[in-house]
Amino acid sequence: MSGTMGDSTRARIAGAIRSANAGGGVAAGDRAPGTYVGGYAGGMGGSWSKAATNRGIDPMRGGDAGGGAGAAAGAGGGGASRMRPLPAGGGGGGSGGAAANGGFGLLGGGGHSQQQQQQQAVVGQRERVRPGSHGAKNAWDELPRKDLPRAPPHGVTTKQIKPVSATMAGGKTTRPLMGIGMDLKAPGLGQMGSGVEAVGGALAAAAAARAKLGGGGGGRGGMGGGTFGDPAGPPPARNSRAGVPSYNPGRVAFAEQEGRVAAAGQQMAEMSMSGIVGGGGGAPDLSDASMAMLEDQIRDALRNRRTVYEDSKSLLLKMFKSVDDGSGDVSWSEFSALCGQLGVECGVAEAQRLFERFGYKDRLPYSRFAHVLLTQPSRQLAEEMPIRHGPFKDVMAANFHGKIKDKRCRKPLYTPTSWDPQVDAARSAELPNKRLVLNFVYGYNGKDATSQNLFYNSSGQAVYFTAGVAVVYTRRTGGGSSGSSSSGHSQHFFLGHTDDIKALALCPAEVDVGGRKYPPRSIAATAQVSSHDEGPFICVWDSRVGSQQGEPQLARLSFMKEDRGFSALGFSHDGVHLAAVATDNAHTVYVYDWRRNRLESSGKGQMGDPPQVYGLEWNPYAGRPGSVPPAFLTFGKKHIKMWTRGDGPTGQGQWSAKQLSTGRLDMQNVHSAAWLPPRQEGGAECLVVAGMADGQLYVFKGITAIKSIQAHAKGPQSIQPDGHVAYTGLRGMRLAEMRDAATGGATGKRVLLTGGSDGTILRWDVSDGSLVEGRFAAPPLSLRSSLPDRGHIVRALDYDPVRGVVLVGTNQGGVMEVADNTQTVLVYGHSDDVWAVAFHPLLPTRAATVSDKVLTLWDLEARAMERCGVVGFAARAVAFSSRPLEGDGRTHHVAVGGAKGDLMVFLESTLQPVHKTKDSREGITDLKYSPDCRHLAAATADTWIDIYNVSKSYQRVSRCSGHSSTVRGIDWSTDGSVLQSDSADLELLVWNARTGKQIPIPSRDTSFSTHTLRLGFPVLGIWPDGSDGTDVNSVCRSARGDVVATADDSGLVKLFNCPVVLEDAPHRAYRGHSSHVMGVRFSCDDSLLVSVGGYDWAMFQFSVVELQPMDHGPNLPTKVWGALDPEGRSYGWTYTPYDVNPASSGAGGGPGGAPPPLPAAPPPEGTPPSHAMAPAALRYGSGDGAAEAAAHGFGAVADDEELQVDEEEIDPGDEGSI
């Protein structure tokens, strides 16, 4: 044979055709003996089709023979007699109606015993259909059958229960969408038991009595056995055997059944008279339930006739086109005739009622009918809904019910059925009635800051910076509780920066600014990098006052964007000058008279990729007796320079640098430097000590190194800020003057403190102005680490001479005070990027974070780390169990997911591991326990979600596969049955948590216990302008559901009203983090909010503060349609329309002047103030309100100008400011 069809295939097809032609007979050699299942008596017709579902079949409808599976196709005849050949004998099976040639026919005629009727012709059972090429019935056919819900008999008053999705969007119509199944209740009937089956049997017998024997009549719409109802019926069957009825068995003796038929007819008549069954010659049932059943019967009939080459829709359209006159629609009678061809009984009255259900009267477009009838309900719902694109522009545009397509979400979003734009959209147009107040910042920049960035100020407070916030920490005083801020252990902040701070300095002298004296070490300077909107700048501020308590800023020095930022700052010994090293390629060194904002000098510091200069140190002994000249050092990558001032015409020349030589010593990276006191009283020479990368101390005299001292170990290699790998060595260095502990007076003893990568602080005695190896003022101080796998590396040092303690900043992001035999941690932090945060479900002051390989539990009331543990892998996700899972009834589980797919579960109380598994290869991105704590869901970068059974030792029970990219987040429904997830390619999917299967129906009315996804209708408007769907990294809806917090790539934490459906929705924005804020979460009682930064290693703790509702006043203005100019030539929406007389509109600009604008119309009676006006700026009227608007940053706006609410930044703690 030639062609693509093989011999075996041809043989099978030939055998199938012979079987079809043989009808119920079995020819020797054609096929194996046994009972066959299939459309055309096991032949080609319907061999690949799906079995009839029998949905909506009424067992009490006249003409349904036996109420069995045969009725499911609407073709009359008992289901068993239609679906498979049966032995001769017995009766009551009904006739096979509407048998068509060429594969449309159904097996007709042939009765079977009463026992077989009860076993095989059962209402609501699907016949199991296998390909016709299979042989005899196998074990698959013997599986127990599953009963489907029965429909109530016609004529009984029923209550139609429509699903929410069965109506058109917006409640504009209550017409049920076609193809959506209806649940039915029959009040008062109870369970339909044997009585209903008896009725069905009676109807079957009556139908058999009315039918013509021999292949015609019978069943619903018995149209005969020929092509589309030819009374002649199909050709006689060949090769029929004894005991197996042929296709057309002819007239069968019915004498033995006449009594039974008469009794059945009498019973049916009595039931019809009593009103229980609408049958016989009564009026047809035209209820919605009956029409839904009729649609199901048409679907089943088409399903039984379709083949692999022709689907149900193509088959139906083919039949409609056979009677089409070119108009594309059919009439009632034509539709009834076509239903008869399918074997479905449908009179003209029923056709008319069905047309009305589809929205048509006399003619029905059959293409529309076929589409709606055979389209899935979810797709039909989506197609029939109105569509809009993107978030709503304003409240008026939010009056929409339907489907929303957004470029940031690949799947369409749907408005909830309870969507009320007058309430929900108006809320989205207002600022939230809550605000965030920054309470505490966990962490210190021990990562990429290259210069000294930790100091004691004049009040004994620790001054440092983290990310974009300058922090002033007040230590805890004795007698106070650990969680009481009144006893110390608190912070205030300088919030004048808009991007990351990179350098810090304290003024060592007393200065006068604006007529006010500031004591030594009270004024701080911080420098930030260039931002998107402006170049870098330096802020000089009073460290004793925070931005939440007053206005601490004293001066601001602005620079060009080309300077990029600053790596080091330093005040001169007298506080007059401020030197700064920029991070441009030349590392320009600026010297400013900061009080006059006057640049005195600039010069190149070091060429190369930044940062090449690591620090700056002024000579503190300049100007003292002995004529020590003013000078400062800059040092960094394999260089150290001394800057001095030349003589100018006025004695104030330019600052110039000289390179210091290491001589015979190796030149290395210089990480720290200090000036020693003059070697003799009244001397003018000061030695310079530099800390090197390998832990050595180089001593310079003049411009040449004279010796080196091995002080510290070189420590581990690390990646430097400019990207190269090197030893950090000796980073911390500070010269301190000792004081008497009793009197507080100076003792004249000077100590050089050095801290290195070995976690040791050495105290050198340099009172005579020289550094001698082995000469120490006190024993070394060793730092203890809370992590067993890593030690502390000193990043910065300072000394409090009053208390005799050393202030230390380390690489683990913590700040501590160290003295002999004591070590007190002031501020805890993280030692790497913080990836995720989770709150305890019952304790609002307990949270967990994961950073690198460390799991940390925090006590937010005590503002301290509670406990931490090393998990052994790079952690990326964390979650608390929603309920206690241990025997004590208090201990929760903490689940941690890793970057390589590891999943570990720990006890909350001791962080003891209780379970470990690995079902992912690419990593876990999110973890969530279900609300009932029965399951744990793990979102992975493998594009799937794993579901674990908690009670079965975290056994994996299902996997949700369907995403095409990394799954970013997951949320559980309130009942724990549904899961929603979003992915990196902006796809939002919904899952059945039990089976892991995707749910194609929109979940717009599903209630979710949390909303942490970046996609979805409630967070439609969170995206900033120009966003591509990746700008927002974390989302969290509050427990009450009234606000939504987001964390984005711009370092902002934003607070919106929920839902957020308006484009550029009003919000409160809070700066402080570096770029890429990784997570944000509300506590279980919404009293706290915590955000974690990835790059800055920090965690910010905010208090959520309720604001008093704003009183808009009795005369709240609203927009009206009116004239925008005195002449009346332009009209539009405005708050102050002009009074223009249409008859004399041209006279408005005459000498008399323009008429004054009309006062704004009052709001409609009963309209809430929050709904009467969307723009937030308009809440401030005139008079005092205008002053308040100006104070909040609103400028003058024209009356007819469309007011827009821009993104408003709010300084944490500045109550009510915008």
UniProtKB/TrEMBL annotation:
Residues 1198-1218 have a biased composition (Acidic residues). Pfam families: Beta-prop_EML_2, HELP. Residues 63-80, 88-112 have a biased composition (Gly residues). The keyword rRNA processing does not apply. Residues 139-149 have a biased composition (Basic and acidic residues). Residues 113-124, 1185-1197 have a biased composition (Low complexity). SUPFAM superfamilies: DPP6 N-terminal domain-like, WD40 repeat-like. Residues 311-345 form the EF-hand domain. The keyword Repeat applies. Coiled coil: none annotated. WD repeats lie at residues 752-774, 827-868, 960-1001. Residues 1153-1167 have a biased composition (Pro residues). Residues 55-159, 222-245, 1144-1218 are annotated as: Disordered. This is EF-hand domain-containing protein. The lineage of its organism: Eukaryota, Viridiplantae, Chlorophyta, core chlorophytes, Chlorophyceae.
